[in-house]
From TrEMBL, chain A:
It catalyses: a hydroperoxide + [thioredoxin]-dithiol = an alcohol + [thioredoxin]-disulfide + H2O. The lineage of its organism: Eukaryota, Viridiplantae, Streptophyta, Embryophyta, Tracheophyta. This is thioredoxin-dependent peroxiredoxin. The gene is LOC104609308. InterPro entries: AhpC/TSA, Peroxiredoxin_BCP/PrxQ, Thioredoxin-like_sf, Thioredoxin_domain. One of its GO terms (cellular component) is cytoplasm. It comes from Nelumbo nucifera. It comes from the Eukaryota. It is found in: Plastid, Chloroplast thylakoid lumen.
Automatic annotation (TrEMBL), chain B:
This is Lipid desaturase domain-containing protein. Residues 116-284 form the Lipid desaturase domain. It comes from Nelumbo nucifera (Sacred lotus). It is a multi-pass membrane protein. Its main location: membrane.
Length: 214, 308
């Protein structure tokens, strides 16, 4: 019997927030040609920003900047699969692979997680940490990590707040949360952004390639 | 007198089952009923036998709920035959109307070819949906879903279904759709498409049954058409019956399978449906009793040995 369960993450939480209280709030997309998400691998290396500029000084500003190569992404604190708070700043001083994936227990994400697991020793050898982020809750991450014996941290980005802050693009006209991986160097600067929805194992190859050159 | 079945996979006794063969057919345990030869009065006397232990005839009966070979559910009824007749009539009328104006044969022919191609795609989409969503209690499609699940448990059953029994459900759907078109439309191009498309859809279950057959038991023409890619091949369809059961859904020619699987079309649809409606397809779960082909479990079998 097919199971019916409402996803913890809703599609609306994937999209950037609008501000109904301030309809004059404008969003100026300044996008480079390489910034659109594609299915089969896009390395983003140019700067691009989407800014919302409030017209009234009394309105609440909703500024978010998409993280690009060369940026130091905004820090965050999220709960891991054991319910403990984990901050991005904890990993400063070593390279970090932060990979955003759609959801636990889906075919592509399982392949990707298992591929990271199987190559984990290579990541450790490169001195890097691996962190997976999705909108699933702590319990889902715990089950997922246990089932597939994942040795790395999974963070629960409920409401997809960090996904939106970092500007991870959605796929298929916004119907699918994007699959995007960032590699941060020891100083916390983004050195690689790799996007590929349907070839999840390639994320491991591309990130390892870069880590070995850092 | 029980008859010999599946000579390539004789059931030799308790605890015996066979690995997948080189064609990639799923693991099956066939039941063998050995026939004792009868000798006519005018036949020459048999040669003298060496002293051996007396031959035994083993009859085995499956203790699970799998249909037996003489199960009434595999036989055609008059209702089944009526629906198949209605379906065939609708299709033939449509084809006749497509050929009625001989000077316009090219366009109806091209339309027919498109119908054949799209029938394969349609069979894949329908098969994917039925295999992955809903259950026996679903409205309209519940019985179909249950039948497809049963097919995954006992794939061999389809080769034992009588013709009308196998096709009547599709024939019924085709009758309801094609008959109004037969009555209301006179365009030969439309009928070229409709006739061929509906005919292929109606007979897809027969193509499917042939894809579960063994080469030696199929008509040579069928084997040739399978090898040529005109009909879905045994090897390609066998891949659908192996974990993770999420590929090779098309069952007319199977021509769309490579494209759909390589481009992860169904996986994409599954993801979209999951994020949109929260419904997980069955193929995402670990293979369980709903999918896994049932192999004879030796313990509950009843084995009756009789001496000849």
């Amino acid at each position: 019997m097919a199971s019916i369960s409402l996803p913890k993450h809703t599609l609306s939480s994937v999209f950037p927030p609008t501000n109904p209280k301030n309809p004059s709030c404008q969003i100026l997309p300044i996008l480079s040609s390489a910034s659109q998400s594609q299915f089969y691998g896009v390395k983003l290396s140019t700067r691009s920003y989407s800014l919302s500029i409030p017209s009234s000084s009394f309105s609440r500003s909703s500024i978010f900047a998409k993280v690009s190569k060369g940026d130091v992404p905004p820090s965050f604190t999220l709960k891991d699969q054991d319910g403990k708070n984990v901050s991005l700043s904890k990993f400063k001083g070593k390279p970090v692979v932060v990979y955003f994936y759609p959801a636990d227990e889906t075919p592509g994400c399982t392949k990707q997680a298992c591929a990271f697991r199987d190559s984990y020793e290579k990541f450790k050898k490169a001195g890097a940490e691996v962190v997976g982020i999705s909108g699933d809750d702590v319990a889902s991450h715990k089950g997922f990590a246990k089932k597939y014996r994942l040795p790395f941290t999974l963070l629960s980005d409920e409401g997809n707040r960090i996904r939106k802050e970092w500007g991870v693009p959605a796929d298929l006209f916004g119907t699918l949360p994007g699959r995007q991986t960032y590699v941060l160097d020891k100083k916390g600067v983004v050195q690689l952004i790799y996007n590929n929805q349907f070839q999840p194992e390639k994320h491991i190859d591309e990130t390892l390639k870069l880590l070995q050159s850092l | 007198m029980p008859t010999l079945l599946h000579p390539k996979y004789p059931y030799l006794g308790l605890g015996c089952h066979f690995r997948r063969n080189t064609c990639g057919l799923p693991r099956i345990a066939a039941r063998v009923y050995c026939s004792t030869p009868s000798t006519a009065l005018d036949e020459p006397p048999p040669p003298p036998r060496l002293p051996t232990s007396p031959p035994l005839v083993a009859t085995t009966r499956r203790a699970s709920s799998a249909p037996l070979l003489d199960d009434p559910s595999l036989r055609s009824t008059w209702s089944h035959r009526a629906w198949v007749a209605a379906g065939c009539t609708s299709v033939l009328v449509s084809l006749a109307k497509s050929a009625i104006e001989s000077h316009t044969w090219f366009e109806p022919l091209v339309a027919g070819l498109i119908g054949y191609v799209l029938a394969d795609l349609g069979s894949g989409v329908y098969h994917w949906a039925i295999d992955n969503y809903g259950d026996a209690s679903s409205p309209v499609f519940g019985s179909q879903i249950e039948a497809f699940q049963g097919h995954h448990k006992w794939p061999w059953t389809i080769t034992k279904r009588q013709f009308a029994n196998n096709l009547y459900a599709l024939a019924r759907a085709v009758s309801f759709v094609v008959l109004p078109i037969d009555l209301g439309v006179n365009d030969p191009v439309v009928h070229g498409f409709v006739g061929v498309c509906s005919g292929c859809i109606m007979f897809s279950q027969q193509f499917h049954a042939w894809a579960h057959g063994t080469k030696s038991r199929l008509p040579p023409l069928v084997v040739a058409l399978q090898d040529a890619g005109v009909l879905v091949s045994r090897a390609h369809h066998a891949a659908h019956h192996r974990p993770p059961y999420n590929n090779n859904y098309c069952i007319v020619s199977g021509a769309w399978n490579k494209f759909l699987d390589r481009n992860k079309v169904f996986e994409t649809l599954e993801m979209v449906l999951f994020f949109r409606f929260g419904v997980r397809p069955r193929s995402w779960s670990e293979p369980n009793s709903e999918w896994t082909e049932q192999v004879d479990n030796p313990t509950p079998l009843q084995v009756t040995l009789t001496q000849t």
